[in-house]
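haha ok so turns out i had the wrong file open the whole time. this is the CORRECT one, sorry everyone. sequence first:
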Amino acid sequence: MEAVRSGARNEVLAGDEYGEAGEHSSSPLLRYGPALSAILFLGLALRLMHWWAVRTRPFFAELAMDSQEYDRWARVVASGNWLGSEVFFQAPLYPYTLAVIYRIFGHSYDAVYLLQSVLAVCACFALAEAARSLHSDRGGDRAKLHGLLTAALASLYAPFVFYDVQMAKESAAVSITCFLLFLWIDARRRHCFAVVRWLSIGCLLGLLILLRENALLVLPFVLAGAWAGAKRPVAVAIRGISIVFGIVLILTPVALRNGFVGGSFLPTTFQGGTNFYIGNNPEADGTYRPIVPGKQIPRLERTEPTRIAEEDRGRELTASEVSAYWLGRSLDWMVAEPTAFLRLQLRKVMLFWRWYEWPDAVDYAWVRRQSLVLWLLPVGFGSVVLLACVGFFLRWREQMCRWSGPDLPLSLWTVGWTVSTVIFFVFSRYRIPVVPALLPWAAWSLVRLWEVSVDGRSRRLSPWMAGLLVALALLLPRAMEPGPRQDLVQYNLGVLHRDGGRTALAREAFVAAYAVDSQHFLAAMNLGLLAAKDRRWAEAELWLRRALAIEPRSDDVRANLGALLLATGRIEEAEEELRQVLQANPSHPQARRNLDLLGRGNFR
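then structure:
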């Protein structure tokens, strides 16, 4: 087998845009259709079993953070308010899609999870076809095996299953990426202009931008991949125009809507500048850190940056002006501290490629302990990275060390998505659209491992040794996986219990979060508020003062402490605390209300 492939390396197949080496001829050895159907059925069955295991659990039956906001927004839209009244701050496609689902199926989380799972399995099929399209002979045994193994890895990839059963846009982002990569790879194989394919690629990228605004930064990489290999200037022009027109076609209605309701014709949202500042400022560490401590809930993530920008500028700002304000602050820091900026980017690159599934609101490691299916799934990010590195090197060698071969879309998407994410800040859910580009390479390493191990003329690698290497790639990252972030898990559980009126359980969860992290000021503040609700004033003050000692910049902690002091008759202390709150945040509603009551003598 190796001799045949090596001998064919200098031959160019007729009709092959890349001049790729000849593949093995097609044979009935692999029954591609039935095998692929079985893999996809397995992928769907695993997602359904995972859904059944977690459907009544916290974060799935009760939503938190962004999931809760998507649900709230979708219910507002589904009630008939399709236009809205403000410029979009968060990407709108996912909530509007939820609204359509709610209108059809009612307010059902299960309907969302099941539809996302079905779409994800269709995306696994598209990714399998993308892997086959990397070969000039798509019907050959080698191409079939590559497609099947790519589909298998996608079906068994645990983080995909994790996000497919969540009220989160990551599942849709991965599915769109899979279809986009298939069209991109397939379009480059064809000699004709394939205008419809390039236009479709632009439309899919536009949809992805409406899920993840950073996808707009991938456009130069997609254009470079479209132009590479084009032999005539007219082909370059048509491909580029088709892609850009597809994006414009998707984004124009959003820009017109934003201009109509808010006066800013932004094609997506106005959080770009804010997010850029969060990821690039003197206190940034590469992950999410709120601009105002304790204000990391979706509603306040919109209002607080606007309030601060307007207070600093001394006037009301438009949405685009708010974004420009935060972008300008970040750029000023970058110019003043270029070395610190570069160090931060390097740190974010390392965070991006770290094997750990860095959590946001829902901890992947914790959910794995709630679902046997998710716990048993063998493929994680570390495994894919290890296998993809090997597969990339092997493909690069077989393409005679050329960068413009059929794998170019995978390379450009990997680099482009890494750049577009790292330039802001990193969560594991932000990086997940890079995984579809890695899976064909990971599968290729398995294809080559299989070929070498079963080649009777080769004694370099036995089947047992090949199996051991695969097992090592799967198990090593698993062995290094840390446990759940109990401070995050317990705090978010406490919020769910608190909002659900389960006070005792909320207090227990907040205590557990504080026990894990004694610097968790939000847990301490909530314990103070729960104690104050039961009129245990001494305990409440103890917790609030602990929270204030941990985070003295928090206006909410100080405002709650001022309210407690008012309730216990310590007027002068209360007035001092409330005035400090208004110095930091002149529009704080609770502090202003209580200080107004003091001014009218209601507490004296």
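Residues 1-29 have pLDDT under 50 and may be disordered.
again sry for the mixup
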